Amino acid sequence: MSFRIGIGYDIHRLVVGRKLILAGVIIDYPRGLLGHSDADVIAHAVCDAMLGAVARGDIGALFPDTTPETKDMNSIDMLKQIVQMIEKEYMIANIDINCICERPKLSFYREKMVAVLAEACKIDTACISIKFRTNEGLGEVGSGDAIASQAVVLLEKAE
User: Fold this and answer.
1) What residues form DSSP beta bridges with 154?
2) What is the pLDDT of residues 97-135, one digit of tens each?
3) Exposure winner among 106, 133, 135, 152, fewest CB in 10 A?
4) Rounded to an integer, what distance in angstroms lies between the CA atom of residue 9 and that of residue 43?
5) Which residues, other chains included, contact 21 with Cβ-Cβ below 8 Å and sequence gap of 6+?
6) pLDDT above 70: percentage of residues in the chain
7) Assessment of whether the complete model's pTM goes beyond 0.90
8) Residue 10: count of CB within 10 angstroms of its CB
9) Which residues of 84-121 are buried (b: 16+ CB within 10 A; e: fewer)?
10) Torsion angles phi and psi, residue 49, rounded to 5
């Protein structure tokens, strides 16, 4: 196959006492995402999309939330390991991301997020799109108690 497509999704609850990290960028906000790792929902969605595209499971299989080695793990490091795993067979053509939250407003951080992801994925920033959406007040995301992310990745067979 010349092309492979993968989709990823992640959601984490916001809590006091944690840093908010999205796409590897620390966001100035009084709450952060609860999780075993740094709980970076954007990086996790991208990781799962890549793994799905190559039919290699999900990040929970590679980085289980039951081991001390993955406690507070940097999700960008997870992404780099996955990129290294697939780059012998596939090149990343593009990544399209939705980050869904009511608060905080994130557009100020977009360029930095894209730069961090592009570096981790070894691709040009023009190959990454991040869109910020709200949940129109619906559910845990809409009430401001959680942040979710979706990602789609297109991989092209390396020559």
Assistant:
1) 5, 94
2) 999 999 999 999 999 999 999 999 999 999 999 999 999
3) 133
4) 10
5) 27, 32, 33, 38, 39, 40, 75
6) 99
7) yes
8) 24
9) eebeeebbbeebbbbbbbbebebeebbeebbebbbebb
10) -65, -45
Copy the structure tokens of residue 74. Answer: 């940097």
- HEC string of the chain equals CCEEEEEEEEEEEEEECCCEEECCEEECCCEEECCCCCCCHHHHHHHHHHHHHCCCCCHHHHCCCCCHHHCCCCHHHHHHHHHHHHCCCEEEEEEEEEEECCCCCCHHHHHHHHHHHHHHHCCCHHHEEEEEECCCCCHHHHCCCEEEEEEEEEEEECC
| Residue in the structure block whose two tokens are 């092309």 | 3
Q: 64 falls in which pLDDT band (50, 70, 90)?
A: confident
Give the sign of the dihedral formed by CA 145, CA 104, CA 134, CA 37: negative
CATH superfamily of 3-157: 2-C-methyl-D-erythritol 2,4-cyclodiphosphate synthase (3.30.1330.50)
